[in-house]
Amino acid sequence: MAAGRIIKNKFHEFTDELTGTRVTRLTEPDHVSHHMYFYNRCTTADGSRLLYCAQTEGERQLYLMDLHTGDAVQLTEGDGLDDYGGLISAEDTHIFYQQKGGIWKLCLETLEKECVYSIPEGWNGGNWGMSQDNRYLAIVETLRASLPEQKKGGNWDFFALTCKAKPHCRIVYVDLQTGSSHTVLEDDCWFGHAQIRPGDPDTILFCHEGPFDLIDARLWLVQSDGSNYRCCREQPSDLILTHEFWLPDGSKLAFVYRETTGRKVENIRMINPDTMEEEIFMACSPYAHFICDKQNRYMVGDAQGSDVPIHMLKDTDETQGGETADASPSSCEVKNDFIYLVDVEKREERRLCYHGTSWRAIHGNPQDSHPHPCFTEDNRHVIFVSDREGKPCIYRVDLEQFKA
């Protein structure tokens, strides 16, 4: 399949039975589709075009969808694609994505591309983030020889195995304007989710990756020159901290605090990276992932109806939100598998819609059935993924019906 071809998506609008919210399915359930990782800039500034991955004819490639017509142009071709590692540039003219050992910059008008960073031989790269102006790149690289042997299949077996192996990882900082790069830090510890602080490209947020009961602590900060490598907070082995992100102005990092024992408290918390002062922002439902819009007016989270952590779910487990072959909540037991919208000013959450995804790692990539809700760049819509109707599809909710 060659870059430049057009595929047509048929939109399907329905009213959520449990909330009354109007929801639009953007892709069809006969093939896997998902948007980019929810940290990334997935739409253009006006919210009119969406960067996403579709698996057609057995191949996963990146596409840019016109959200008015459903027409989508294929942007990438060939193998070795990281189907979650892509983002639209700050000026909406290019995308950055990862494929075959490199980070590429592709022009959306001409589809011409250039490799802006090559991952060295013997290393695996990923979990990268960029500064707001796309000048700086922070990427996690793992020495391939230090990784454990992977079992076949796209399941979660790798998660604990990789953490226990303590692979040799490093964070590399790249100046795309000058072409220079350097290692920020390296250690025999599994690193993940490098995120450059908005307004301060010298500060990097990242995590020690792995199951919550195996890692030393999840949340870490470091300066781009390798100095001031510090842990944001202690983490007992019965506590889950996830899925950390920077507020749009860079003033704080936010995360969900989730106790697995005792009262099983769940709340949104924030940390000031300069003082390490921690704030309990508000109680929340059991979000697996959450993030805020560009104005920090709203947050969105995907609740998980089961109290079994996602990485501990088995492929043979019953679905967590309902039967994936039937999109109707009335056909199954309804658990707390909802998308929640948080009003930041009021510190209140409300059910946006039922996502009903299975959470199962059965579609090829363990992430495929995760809702990963996020906002379009114009703050008008929430997009998320669910496999409630078959293969993972992308769904959209217009927030005007809630603001009114």
The amount of beta strand, in percent, is: 35-45%
- Helix count, per DSSP? 2
- Low-pLDDT parts are 318-325
Mean pLDDT: 94
Rg, Cα atoms, Å = 20 Å
Strand pairing plus helix content: what structural class? mainly beta
Sheet having the most strands: 5 strands, antiparallel
User: How many β-strand stretches?
Assistant: 30
User: What is the approximate shape?
Assistant: globular
Question: Order of strands in the sheet with the most strands?
Answer: 1-7-6-5-4
Task: Describe the protein.
The chain is mainly beta. The chain has 2 helices and 30 strands. The protein has helices at residues 157-165, 400-403; strands at 6-8, 12-15, 22-25, 33-35, 49-56, 59-66, 71-74, 81-88, 94-99, 102-107, 113-118, 123-130, 136-143, 168-175, 181-188, 191-197, 200-208, 219-223, 230-231, 239-246, 253-259, 266-271, 278-283, 287-292, 298-303, 338-343, 348-354, 374-375, 381-386, 393-398. The strands form 7 sheets. Strands 1-7-6-5-4 form a 5-stranded antiparallel sheet, with no helix packed on it. It has a 5-stranded antiparallel sheet with strand order 2-3-30-29-28. Strand 5 and strand 6 form a beta hairpin. It starts with 5 loop residues before the first strand and ends with a helix. The relative contact order is 0.13. Residues 318-325 have low confidence and may be disordered.
